[in-house]
Amino acid sequence: MKVLPLTALLFVITQACNSQDQTAPSGVAHFNYDRAQPLAWESRSDGVVNGVESQTISFASPKGGRATGMLLVPSGPGPFAGIVLMHGMPGTARQMEGMGAELARRGAVVIAIDAPWARTGSVINWDARDSANQVQLIVDLQRAVDVLLARDDVDRSRLAYVGVSYGGAMGGLFAGVERRLATYVLRVGDGGLVAHFTSAGDPPTPPGVSDAAWQAWRAAMEPIEPIRFIGRATAPLFFQNGEQDVLVPPADARAYHAAAGANKKITWYPAGHGLNQQANVDMYDWLNQKVGMQLMAMAMP
Hints:
Layout: E1 42-49, E2 52-60, E3 66-74, E4 80-86, H1 97-105, E5 108-113, H2 116-120, H3 128-149, E6 154-164, H4 166-177, E7 183-187, H5 193-197, H6 211-221, H7 226-229, E8 237-242, H8 250-259, E9 264-269, H9 277-291
Parallel strand pairs: 4-5, 4-6, 6-7, 7-8, 8-9
Antiparallel strand pairs: 1-2, 2-3, 3-5
Helix pairs in contact: 3-4
């Protein structure tokens, strides 16, 4: 496997960004970064279970500090598919270990990163920090793709994204920006944080938030709302939603689906926000079709 460069220095990007998509609308420029900068990769093995090695990882974030998370690597030489896996809110990459390990057992190197707010412990601030965190997340997810592409055991033509809940919502924004993945699986997502807090039945302003703060927050968040970007996605999208979901009401999910282009599949399940086993089976089948994943025979430790 290719060894990534290690350094103790943290890279902090300046306001000048390189141009990765010359034809993109101005909003996409928020998520540009310099791909030539070193990853400053660090990892620690946490052991092998059922043929899958779990690693605690970090790398330099172009928006400052270090992105943290986990890497799950199947045994064998590969080449494997590569999957970027994104958790919900609140949550951390580690909470995705079960799903990540199953994806790895099916033949993928899986990288799951913590959202920036998961590293600070402050999920929603109701100020400009939330916008900065969302931009940083999308940049960090792109760097996670860079991590997969830097590995000799990953097939660069077989990359995918799987996002759950908040990860399903942010996946729509990510799909509108990132062009290197073959498919996106968006599970129980809605159109973004603004959509989530303005759903039918929600109060005019969130509890404890002043009207002025609420309006300023919306003004900062709406330009980077996933529902505004998902229509730019070029890879096929697979939406999975629950008919009895109370956290992402069906009407919100349908609005999110409608904003996407024609290259999509939508499946509803008689389930709540946690979906059901059939949804997992359908996800594995979809990923097998798009990036060539099947359950592998793993040697027990």
